Amino acid sequence: MWDFLGEALSDPVSALLVSAERSLAAEFPPQAQARTVLAAIGSGERTFTNIARAAGGIGATPLQRALELLAEKRVIAAELPVSLRPSKDRRYRVADPYLRFWLHLLGPSMEEIERGRGDLTLARIRDSWTSWRGRAIEPLIREALVRVLPDDRLPAAPAVGGYWTRTNDVEIDAPSGGGGLAQRRGLPGPRRRVRPRRSAHRLAVVSGGLR
Q1: DSSP alpha helix (H) spans, 10-117
Q2: Which DSSP symbol is given to 45?
Q3: 3-state class of 155 per DSSP?
Q4: CATH class, range 2-147
Q5: Residues 165 and 89 sit within 8 Å (Cβ to Cβ)
Q6: Residue 60: Cβ-neighbour burial (10 angstroms; 0-12, 13-18, 19+)
Q7: Is pTM beyond 0.90 here?
Q8: In this predicted model, what pLDDT tens digit does every residue of 82-114 receive, in sequence order?
Q9: What percent of the chain has pLDDT over 90?
Q10: How many CB atoms lie within 10 A of CB 14?
């Protein structure tokens, strides 16, 4: 993989670098607000407030329009936590894995790559690879779990998603959803990021994702 990246980053017109740029240019002109909002999401911001701040302090109404346009074109996914309690704490992410990689790690470095310093870009990718990969793989795992349902190892789980709180003191990557004792077994071995005060949120997660 690193050999492939090194070769691609040494050529400013390689397919890895130009495919996303051309696709975005065809869908969203550089001056369009949707393009700015997408760049903010691609940088790693996921909440409405943080996206607005990263997009230059864009107002709530134009931001909402831009998010709706991006979601309509299936460029981003807008997700709510899987929980027994209704939540409006929506999180946004870039839907396509390649575009997610390009926006976060390649797009911001295009000028550097065009100057022939793709080696610097590659070094930053190496340094941030583990943390970026951990976040990027979460939706792929959830999609894979959805595709294998129904499965005896996930008894009667009608939904798979993520769970988080507004303050992020609890975040679970893949709780299962459903009712009854069998469903409360949850998913086998989900990766969890649970901060202090776990018990305060135990009942909020569908199917005992915190058990």
Answers
A1: 15-27, 33-42, 48-54, 60-72, 97-101, 110-114
A2: -
A3: coil
A4: mainly alpha
A5: yes
A6: exposed
A7: no
A8: 777 777 888 999 999 999 999 999 999 999 999
A9: 47
A10: 16
Among 175, 174, 173, 165, residue whose Cα is nearest residue 197: 165
Q: What are the CA-CA distances from residue 94 to residues 75, 78, 98, 164 (Å)? A: 6, 9, 9, 18
Please give the Cα distance from 8 to 88 (Å, whole number): 41
Other Cβ atoms closer than 10 A to 156: 15
- DSSP H stretches of helix in 45-150: 48-54, 60-72, 97-101, 110-114, 118-148
In the chain, where are the structural domains located? 2-147, 153-208
Distance CA(184)–CA(75), nearest Å, equals 34
Which tokens in the block code for residue 61? 């109404």
Tokens describing residue 139: 């939706």
The Cα 24–Cα 27 span in angstroms is: 5
Half-sphere exposure of 128 (CA within 13 A, CB side): 15
C-alpha span between 182 and 128 (Å, rounded) = 39
